[in-house]
Specification:
- With 130 residues, this protein is α+β, with helices and mostly antiparallel strands.
- The chain has one domain: Aspartate Aminotransferase, domain 1 (Alpha-Beta Complex), CATH 3.90.1150.
- It contains 3 helices and 6 strands; from the N terminus they run ααββββββα.
- A 6-stranded antiparallel beta sheet has the order 1-2-3-4-6-5, covered by helices on one side.
- The chain is globular.
- The protein starts with 7 loop residues before the first helix and ends with a helix.
- The mean pLDDT is 93.
- InterPro entries: YdhG-like.
């Protein structure tokens, strides 16, 4: 797929208002959780690297609100049928897609305030995973 967006600003400008608000909300949480993340555009989405490894991607394609994908880039093999070993999601915010890849949906606007701290905690715990 050819690159559609060269910058995160271009990506944001292309989003409908409701989806853009969700993406900007996620971006703020991600960068608050770990200010050392490098924000780039990869896979036509805002992507966050830590020590040169892709760890988080905001996916805004499709219908509905954006989702935050928690992953380990493309170098680590994943097993779709294996259970995850990540245990730092006490509120069950994550939907698992393999042993090393999960997604977190942007909550509805009325729930964002009360889920904010739990989401930041999940992001921080994810980023310290080896």
């Amino acid at each position: 797929m050819p690159a559609q967006f060269a910058t995160v600003a271009q990506f944001l400008d292309a989003q409908p208002p409701e989806r853009r608000a969700g993406v900007e909300w996620l971006r703020a949480l991600v960068l608050e959780a770990e200010p050392g993340l490098v924000e780039i555009v990869k896979w036509n989405s805002p992507d966050y690297t830590l020590d040169g490894v892709d760890r988080l991607t905001i996916l805004a394609a499709g219908r509905g609100l954006a989702r935050l994908i928690l992953h380990f880039g493309t170098d680590r093999a994943e097993v779709k049928s294996a259970a995850p070993t990540f245990a730092s999601d006490p509120e069950g915010l994550l939907t698992w897609h393999s042993d090393i890849r999960a997604s977190l949906a942007v909550p509805p606007l009325e729930q964002r305030g009360r889920s904010r701290d739990a989401i930041i905690a999940v992001i921080r715990a994810w980023l310290v995973q080896p």
